[in-house]
From TrEMBL:
Presence of the UniProt keyword Metal-binding in the record: yes
CDD domains: MopB_3, MopB_CT_3
Protein origin, superkingdom: Bacteria
Similarity remark: Belongs to the prokaryotic molybdopterin-containing oxidoreductase family.
Residue intervals of the 4Fe-4S Mo/W bis-MGD-type domain: 2-59
Cofactor: Mo-bis(molybdopterin guanine dinucleotide)
The organism of origin for this protein: Hydrogenophaga taeniospiralis CCUG 15921
GO molecular function annotation: iron-sulfur cluster binding; metal ion binding; molybdopterin cofactor binding; oxidoreductase activity
Protein name per Swiss-Prot or TrEMBL: Molybdopterin oxidoreductase
Keyword ATP-binding attached: no
Alphabetized UniProt keyword annotations: Iron, Iron-sulfur, Metal-binding, Molybdenum, Oxidoreductase
Pfam families for the chain: Molybdop_Fe4S4, Molybdopterin, Molydop_binding
Length: 680
């Protein structure tokens, strides 16, 4: 008899879908979207509808492995769990006895579950006194920009986009990376809404919008300031809203008046009329909604760009309507009890140094010094594939290849990172463990119950840290908590756990139009155009356009700007090894505009070198109108070992940081491209 188990999609995507897994005699037959969950609406993306292919993949790691050959040789031998855990604990103890800060966790959002991400792991590393990891690789520039302006990662309720009359899809390829939002946008379109896509790449989403504004990467703040200029000049302003619910209007007004559309058009590389038309539409259409996404903040000025854009809805009073305003991330709405879950009290007064995950390449190569602290001697990697996803991979690989570095990787698969491990520990997939999920694209809590027993000898991340804690002699009772108990701890009494057990999801009780009467969660309670907090740090109190670190046209040797947004059928570097999905993507490609291709004698299908001072990678060129002149698109994120020359796009990206949030600048990168003669 088949049974159906309620769960949640674990992947790093704004949609966080509710899943139904059909199980027969302990075997998961299929995974579907839960029709009872409104946002999922019974539909899944191609990737996750094949989740059972991932769980039962023939190449899944199903037992602990220990390195035998030299680092990176790829030679491992199977070991029992006890032997592996004893070996790891023994090594960590020796390092910790000198300085626990020489041990570093490295994790991101392989699973977004509150329990299998940092639930037990944070307790373990706090108790150990390991270095903190600054988890910046995706969203901190925009997150900080938003928080300085609106007070948190808060915004419109996503369902009301369906009622908007104008939607700006800004720095988001929604069809690829936010499919359930796209369904709402289409509903709005059918009701007469106008859709505008703001993106240097002519994405699948841009194809389906009424208008596409193909600005240069990293110029969004200039566009936003010019829109403000037009709102002011034409008096398309909601004076009452500005007066009642904002802070710093006079300063912002003065700043925006320095940005006539002609100036922004020059910076953005777009026609003046596109700006003036967009300003008119935004200033005169009600309700107007902005779906901002993280694609536009992976550049030097990403934080300021988000600040500038986040000012727009207040200027026109868009927040008054439930279908007006802006959504970048909804995650700030969730009342997660981090103190109870992560137990920072286990630090017991110690204040370990912090390592930024973006600069792991450089940091693994640093020696002990007063400024840096101890050399990194051990890395515990879980829920992440840094060798493929972190910038400037030449450095990252060199760091991971250090013979004296002790690396443990908890994984489903033999990733590029696992290749460089000392121990690989088999992790359970979402079908095999408990978890509880927040979302950054909607405001429902989802519970994930295990549908099947762990495959092979796989264990949940939590269990690995529980077992390591015991071997390290950490005897606090919190290391005994079961996964179900951890699930209950995440929200405490703030969410009815019995309802989650019964239905699989619960909707947070939030107002339909959160800022219709102001009430922003900032210090002033207003939308802060001017940030006293930033000014106190010696930074600009007002948002501004900050040019890229690597401005297009500034280098004769590297004249092309490169962005590297995700391929539709992968999720960052996850799923690259699922053959049916890899077959759809084909092989790594670089999209290049016909003019740029012609100037270099490059034809579609030809192998090219993409290079700068940081390195070089190779893939096939695709001459395509999806690329604008001067900008090439290296779709990501392939596993290095599956690429033609054993590298991927991050071979050329840089470890420089954003203006706010210490984030990465993946899309702020100059390169040159050249054809490779066949046979070379
Ligand atoms: N299918 C799929 N879905 C995913 C992911 C995936 O890898 N695959 N990744 C997930 C993750 S981790 C995240 S963070 C989100 C990311 O999803 P998004 O936040 O949507 O970000 P990106 O996909 O990085 O970029 C979105 C668009 O921004 C454009 N862009 C690049 N530079 C600029 C710029 O300077 N200005 C503007 N306006 N646009 C720019 C890119 O061309 C791209 O089309 O998606 C999640 N969903
Ligand atoms: N050039 C370029 N680089 C980028 C980006 C880009 O757009 N361009 N995007 C950036 C962004 S937005 C992000 S978020 C990062 C993403 O970087 P990562 O968070 O590292 O994401 P993934 O590459 O998906 O790797 C996640 C790994 O976790 C594993 N995993 C999944 N679930 C579990 C589990 O339950 N337990 C354990 N132990 N492992 C698990 C998966 O098998 C997978 O190998 O990449 C960044 N890198
Ligand atoms: Mo991300």
């Amino acid at each position: 008899m088949d049974s159906v188990v309620r769960g949640a999609c674990p992947h790093d995507c704004p949609d966080t879908c509710a899943l139904l897994t059909t199980v027969n005699h302990g075997v998961a037959l299929r995974v579907q979207g839960n029709p009872a969950h409104r946002h999922t609406d019974g539909a899944l993306c191609t990737k996750v509808s094949r989740y059972t292919e991932r769980s039962y993949h023939p190449e899944r790691i199903l037992q602990p492995l220990r390195r035998v050959g030299p680092k990176g040789s790829g030679r491992f031998e199977p070991v029992g769990w006890d032997e592996a855990l004893d070996g790891i604990a023994a090594r960590l103890k020796i390092i910790a006895s000198r300085d626990p800060q020489a041990i570093l966790p490295y994790s991101y959002a392989g699973t977004m579950g509150q329990v299998q991400s940092e639930g037990m792991a944070a307790r373990f590393f706090h108790r150990l006194g390991a270095s903190h990891l600054d988890r910046t690789i995706c969203a901190t520039a925009g997150g900080e920009g938003l928080t300085h302006t609106l007070g948190g990662k808060v915004g419109m309720k996503v369902e009301f986009f369906a009622e908007a009359q104008l939607i700006l899809i800004w720095g988001s390829n929604s069809i690829a990376s936010n499919l359930h939002f796209w369904r709402l946008a289409q509903q709005a379109k059918r009701n007469g809404a106008r859709l505008v896509c703001i993106d240097p790449r002519r994405s699948e989403t841009a194809d389906k919008c009424h208008e596409h504004i193909a600005l240069r990467p990293g110029t969004d703040a200039a566009l936003a300031l010019a829109l403000m200029h037009e709102l002011i000049v034409h008096d398309w302003l909601d004076h009452d809203y500005i007066e009642q619910h904002t802070l710093g209007w006079e300063g912002l007004r003065e700043r925006a008046l320095q940005w006539p559309p002609e100036r922004a058009a020059e910076v953005c590389g777009i026609p003046v009329q596109q700006i003036t038309d967009l300003a008119r539409a935004y200033g005169t259409t009600k309700p107007a909604a902005i779906r901002l996404n993280y694609g536009m903040q992976r550049v030097r000025g990403g934080g300021n760009a988000v600040r500038a854009i986040a000012c727009l809805p207040a200027l026109v009073g868009a927040w008054r309507h439930r279908a007006g305003g802006l959504l970048l991330s909804a995650s700030g709405h969730f009342p997660v009890d981090r103190a109870a879950l992560h137990r920072p009290d286990l630090l017991a007064g110690r204040t370990p140094r912090t390592i930024n995950m973006v600069t792991i390449g450089d940091d693994l190569l640093r020696e002990t010094s007063a400024a840096f602290g101890p050399k990194i001697e051990a890395l515990i990697v879980y829920n992440s594939n840094p060798v493929a996803v972190a910038p400037e991979s030449g450095q990252v690989v060199q760091g991971f290849a250090r013979e004296d570095l002790f690396t443990v990787v908890l994984e489903h698969f033999q990733t590029d990172t696992a290749d460089l491990a000392d121990y690989i520990l088999p992790a359970t997939t979402q079908l095999e463990h408990w978890d509880i999920h927040t979302s950054y694209g909607h405001t429902d809590v989802l519970l994930n119950r295990p549908a099947i027993a762990p495959v092979g000898q796989a264990r949940p991340n939590t269990e690995v840290f529980r077992q390591l804690a015991r071997r390290m002699g950490f005897d606090e009772p919190c290391f005994q908590d079961s996964d179900e108990a951890l699930c209950r701890t995440v929200f405490g009494d703030a969410v009815d756990f019995d309802q989650l057990l019964e239905h699989g999801f619960a909707t947070l009780p939030l107002p339909e139009a959160p800022f219709a009467q102001g009430g922003f969660p900032t210090a002033s309670g207003r939308c802060e155009f001017f940030s006293a907090r930033l000014a106190a740090q010696g930074l600009d109190g007002l948002p501004d356009h900050l040019p890229n670190h690597e401005v297009a046209g500034s280098s004769a040797r590297y004249p092309l700007a490169m962005i590297s947004p995700p391929a539709r059928n992968f999720l960052n570097s996850s799923f690259v090894n699922v053959k049916s999905l890899r077959d759809i993507e084909g092989e790594p490609v670089l999209e290049i505009h016909a003019d740029d291709a012609q100037a270099r004698g490059i034809a579609s299908g030809q192998m090219v070198r993409i290079f700068n001072d940081r390195g070089e990678y190779r893939c096939k060129a695709k001459v395509s109108p999806r690329a604008r002149p001067g900008v090439v698109n290296g779709l990501g994120i392939w596993w290095r070992k599956l690429g033609p020359a054993g590298t991927n796009v991050n071979q050329v990206t840089s470890q420089r940081l954003t203006d706010l949030g210490r984030g990465p600048v993946f899309y702020d990168c100059l390169v040159e491209v050249a054809g490779v003669a066949t046979g070379s």
